[in-house]
Amino acid sequence: MSKTEHGTEDVDESSVPYSNLYIYYIQGYIKPVNEPLSSDFIGNWEEDDFSFLFFSKPSSGKVETLLISQPELTLCDQFQMTYEEWHGGKIVPFQVGSFFISPPWERNLGLETGKSELEILLDPGVVFGTGSHPTTYHCLEMLEAVWRKEKIESVLDLGAGTGLLALAAARLGCLRVFAVDFNFLAAKTARKNVVLNGLEDRILTVHGRAEDFMDYPADIVIANIHYDVMKRLIASEGFLHKKWFILSGLLRSEARDIAWRLSQYPVKILKEQERDGVWHTFFGSVS
Fold first, then answer.
1. How much is the pLDDT for 114?
2. CA trace torsion 256, 260, 262, 265 (10° rounding)
């Protein structure tokens, strides 16, 4: 594998990208540095007031040097685990509707079973989102269902994560897909998966706040995103300019509130899906 300028690595399609992960949990945001932390640096996941530095080899010395240069940072903890442990188990190919989703190191399985028509290669890196979560299943099913009813030319994917839903839209035939994530590492991972699937001409990935892109013109908006963000999205003027919507990532009480909020607007919930009474997804249209 070769090192890229931002600390992620090119995809080796023959094997799992990392054997072990070394994670340094730091309080505070890390200021940009002139030189990469090391050739083993994978990336930095920032959330709230915390940073999680990922390395493929032990890097306590490099992290200590960083802490000395930025004394406002505090090392809270550090962890070592296998790549599969980080993702909660082995990442394996799976099918949802017409989509066959596979990590690049397992892609031949899709070809051998004849399920490559809508094959999506997905390398999550260290970003959560292998596609196995119930809300992702629901979004994929609903996206394919609306496509079967009407050709969708443009999609806005907010909270894109690894880019799976954007990739699915493009695989269906959508010509313009705009994928946005507020987390820089997630946006970079989504971009890498776009390139991996050869869909650069259809999908544009952006690092930014979902709320700032709600006015982007699109036939359908997909938001598998935090509840607090979703409340702001559906209250924005841009939401009512979409023809269709898929809203997901909602717990039971959150789903009830979102359903009530939607009832205040000229929209119609056409379908609601839930898994074990916990995770909820809405598919609907704007009048």
1. 52
2. 180
Q: Is the pTM of this model over 0.85?
A: yes
The torsion defined by the Cα of 123, 126, 128 and 131, in degrees rounded to 10, comes to 10
Q: What token pair was written down for 158?
A: 């907010």
Give pLDDT, residue 9.
40
Each residue of 80-124: pLDDT tens digit? 999 999 998 899 999 999 999 999 998 765 545 555 469 999 999
Residue with structure tokens 């963000």?
229
Find the helix packing angle between 184-196 and 164-172, rounded to 10°.
30
Q: Which domains are seen in the chain, by residue range? A: 20-86 (3.30.70), 133-286 (3.40.50.150)
DSSP string across 163-202: SHHHHHHHHHT-SEEEEEESSHHHHHHHHHHHHHTT-TTT
**pLDDT-flagged residues of the chain (< 70):** 1-14, 108-117
What is the tens place of the pLDDT at every residue in 66-75? Answer: 999 999 999 9
Taking CA atoms, 70 is separated from 22, 36, 42, 48, 63, in Å, by 20, 15, 20, 18, 10
Distance CA 145, CA 139 (A): 10
40, 178 contact by CB (below 8 A): no
For the chain, list the strands marked E by DSSP: 20-27, 41-47, 50-55, 74-82, 94-96, 99-102, 119-121, 154-158, 176-181, 203-207, 220-224, 244-250, 267-275, 279-286
